[in-house]
Design brief:
Elements: H1 3-15, E1 27-30, H2 33-49, E2 54-56, H3 67-76, E3 80-85, H4 93-109, E4 112-113, E5 116-118, H5 122-127, H6 131-142, H7 145-159, E6 164-166
Parallel strand pairs: 1-2, 1-3, 3-4, 3-5, 5-6
Helix pairs in contact: 1-2, 3-4, 4-7
Length: about 170
């Protein structure tokens, strides 16, 4: 299945899960720069073409506003979160912070989470192996143990959810 085929299929399934009275945006995309101009932009375009309101982080969005609080509000206001796990995902402190918030909304509000494994395996995410292991070697030395544990817990649970695997590393 090509990226365009997947994005089109995903938009059809995403659009059928919405309820009326929904605020802010329908879908929150969590991703790193290594997928922004390939898969993520295409997914964003296809979803928007289907009338689905998407929150996709952009440097232009943050003029004059605290990034952290705006991201948390965007995640909480979304019906669906789609973390796009790539080789660089666990290297990003921001992505891991987003993922913890996504995990909290999944547990407390029943938010739908659709993980995408882009050139990584679900076991890399769940067990923090491969590129995720390298990222966590650095995190253990630079962040508080409780924070690192929250990142690991979120990766373990969200990585176990049914999602889509895209790319050659399967």
């Amino acid at each position: 299945m090509t990226t365009l085929d997947w994005a089109s299929t995903a938009s059809a399934s995403v659009s059928t899960t919405f309820t009326t009275g929904f605020s802010s945006c329908h879908v929150f995309l969590s991703f790193t720069e290594d997928t922004r101009y390939s898969f993520t932009c295409l997914l964003d375009l296809v979803l928007k073409d289907r009338g689905i309101k998407v929150f996709m982080d952009s440097k232009k969005l943050w003029l004059g506003e605290a990034v952290g609080s705006a991201l948390l509000r965007a995640i909480e206001g979304s019906k669906i979160s789609i973390p796009i796990f790539s080789e660089r995902y666990a290297h990003s402190k921001w992505c891991l912070l987003e993922l913890v918030q996504i995990f909290e909304c999944y547990k407390s509000k029943g938010q739908t989470v659709i993980p995408i494994f882009f050139h990584v395996t679900p076991s890399d995410v769940q067990s923090q192996t491969g590129s995720f292991a390298a990222a966590f070697q650095n995190h253990v030395n630079n962040f508080e143990p409780g924070l690192v544990k929250s990142w690991r817990d979120a990766l373990r649970v969200i990585g176990n959810l049914e999602g889509s695997i895209i790319g050659p590393k399967v």
